[in-house]
User: What shape does this take?
Amino acid sequence: MAANKFKETVAKHYRYFIVGGLFLALVIILVVFLLTRGTDVADSDDGSAEGVVTSNVEVPKDKYEVDAYPNVNSIVTSYMDAMSVGDSDTMASLSNSLSDERRAFFEAQAQYIGNYSDYKCYTKKGPEENSYIVLTTYNLLIKDEATKIPGLLSLYVCTDTSGALYINNGDLSADDEAYILAIVSQDDFVKLQDEVQLSYNNIMDTNAELSAKVNELRTQINSDVQANLEAKKQAETEAAAAQAAEEAAAQAAANATTVKATDNVNIRASASTEADQLGKAQVGQTFTRYEVMDNGWSKIDYNGQEAYIKTEYLEEVAEGATSENAEGNAAGGRNAGDTIKVKENVNIRAAASTDSDILGKANGGDTYTLIEETNGWCKFTYNGKDAYIRSDFIE
Assistant: This one.
């Protein structure tokens, strides 16, 4: 069989068919897809492509029409204007899909593009009713450059059930793929591609400085795209982790019960007697318990952090005592604003823990105004600072 004319054309114009191509981005991604999976496309007498993948829809041989459909021109213009400034949200709204890779590419490219201009739409009827295969020529400016660079973009424009046009970036049937393969390889479209490339090559050949800058930008944009995709992936991972933690916390709160210590017992940073000691629970001190673990420990809230006490030293508080300090308040009848009186000499602490800094010493009979009582400690103001004394030293 003679050499595959269409494959040779694609090989010759390969840069056109790459979605990530910067200045000559002929974005018919299905062509790349078909070629990479090994579709065998052969010559035909009319210049179109035929082969293993064939369309059940008749492929017309009409020459393209130029700017023949105002509604098609309108959506193409809106899509390309959005592309030129990296407005991927607008591009997505005008199409049926826009992958993360494409978003990242167009957003990165826009940092270096001044504008797109001089659009001209070369249109042929598509395989579906009221659909169009559109090759759009345009000129672009790189920022801080005065020379216009020719470009070529292909789009598959379809009509939805409401009659509105959209850019079809996917969702193609085998018939669609075969039809478009045949259309884009017809002589008039291939000639148009050649004309754009010739114009592009002439500019690059006569302007070495611009050509070098184009090559540098291609490399830079590829680097930016990878960085953007990695940052997006990291952000999604972190968001998923945060959501999982939030859901776990909500589930734990829903299963929480109020318990009290039945003995003076150590509070640990993890479920082990070897773990760091965060404090000591006093008899009758209450806590919010989130989980009874199979290893004999209970997960509790201690001063806003996750902590652990052996389950054997805890018992559930009778229904109705719902807060961490409910048991202490019920026993002492203490509320914010009450005057509390020290029973005997005791250290005044900077936090509700015997391991915290000592701010001073209270003598038996000293009185203070209670701010709150929680987890077996009374909070008050001492020398202008928040201070704490254990509740069992308060009358």
The chain has ten helices and 21 strands.
